[in-house]
Amino acid sequence: MTKVATTANATSPAPTATTQTGRSIVIIGALFFIFGFVTWLNSVLIPYLRIACELNNFESYLVAFAFYISYLVMAIPSAWVLKATGFKNGMSLGLLVMAVGALIFIPAALTRTYGLFLLGLFVQGTGLAVLQTAANPYITILGPRESAAKRISVMGICNKVAGALAPIALGAIALKDADALIKRLGTMDAAAKAAELDALASRVVTPYLIMLGVLVLLAVLIYFSSLPEIDTDHEDEAVAAANTGKTSVLQFPHLLLGALAMFFYVGVEVIAGDTIISYGAAQGIALSTAKFFTACTMGAMILGYLIGIVAIPKLISQEKALQVFAVAGVLFALGALFTNGYTSVLFISLLGLANSLIFPAIWPLAIEGLGRFTKIGSSFLIMAIAGGAVLPPMYGWLADQFTPQQAYWLVIPCYLFILYYGMAGHKARS
């Protein structure tokens, strides 16, 4: 298998490698599509399982907890797996683990057991942890550092196109006639209600069987692909000199602050995408309409990625983009808090625009200069994706204690810390 020796400060690949690099970007783009499709199904699963398993707000957002906590648990083991298997075989393994998670959904649906649904989501998140630990540093260092945010933006478009399609596709099946169903459930006796909810739960069997087949097929295709290996343990002279005496990844404060910024970012991204359907319903909008709102959030993110592709680094640096879009997050959140109805929901969708360039900017800033510590540093950033496990249930608890709208105050301090990282945190070196 071809090896590409590079670092986080790599220069552009040689002209003879251009075709191979382009092919690799296409393959990684397909993986990011899968990331997005599986991840943003949660925005439908939350209201769907709330009905099918008779849950409150906090319980329903355990969907996000079970899915994203796997990143915290499995990120370091994922780095060990990748060290043993290499990037390509590790990606194939990650897809197979995701397939097992999809398989668990079948008995979960047939028995309407919420715990099994959560287990399936945890296993799928485990597979994604392996994939993300490989794919994010791979696309970051497959080319010049200063344009890494542009390449990640291209990956983001693949991710969010899938994220827009996924809730529409599953929503058309799982939430079909949901508003009428909710009204009928209130008039039924216990036996009839149980039968109706069993029928609702079984709606996801076919979609997840299809997902199972697709994931297995992709695992086989990746395994036999020509995707080159990247040597992240190699350091050029400048990086090696800067890292003289460094014995631990904990000696890179810009990475640790970047991981905390990533934690807050993923939390607010998941809140913006996964709560908007339920929030729309809380604003009096029918679920038949609200089920499209996550697609609006994904569309706003795609717009932001397109801006990044055009503007970075020609018109704006990664650091400045991080600052501007963090401020936008604060403003859009305030807009949602002080308006109502469709206008408030629109501001939640616009959080997608604010979030779009935060991830592409944090990642290269956080792993800059790590050299031989790149893999373990990437694992720290993957662990930080657990922000998607912690903050949405916090939002759900606040929604139960106050209102779904007032619970959005939670995102304000998150964006303020991201702003700090863009202004000063990424410069910390000691």
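The above is record 1. Record 2 follows with the same two-line structure.
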Amino acid sequence: MKKVTLLLGPLLFIATSVVFAGAAAAAFRWVETEHNFGQITQGKPVTTEFKFTNKGEAPLIISKAYGSCGCTGVEYPKEPIMPGASGAVKATFNAANIGFFNKTVTVESNAYGGLMTLTIHGEVHK
């Protein structure tokens, strides 16, 4: 009985590895992951779009996308992005304070790697 268990354990591991290795996955290909707004005016919102293509073999589903602070609004596709199709994550920054800023947008999805961090930065003037 012990020999059967020793033989079946590795065979089961190999079989499940082969099944999961063949599973299709979604994959982002971003045009850019960082955007410099340059000099912007305090209290006037600025927006950029982070464009991407699903280069994977499965539909890409963004489950959540959010800014690192309340001053950064985020919009993202709610429908699955099919393989080969494109989409965008839109980030809007509304500066309350003067000076340099560096903010992030976190994208949670079923893509390989799971989390993606996008960055926006610039300098706020009156």
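The first helix runs from residue 2 to 21.
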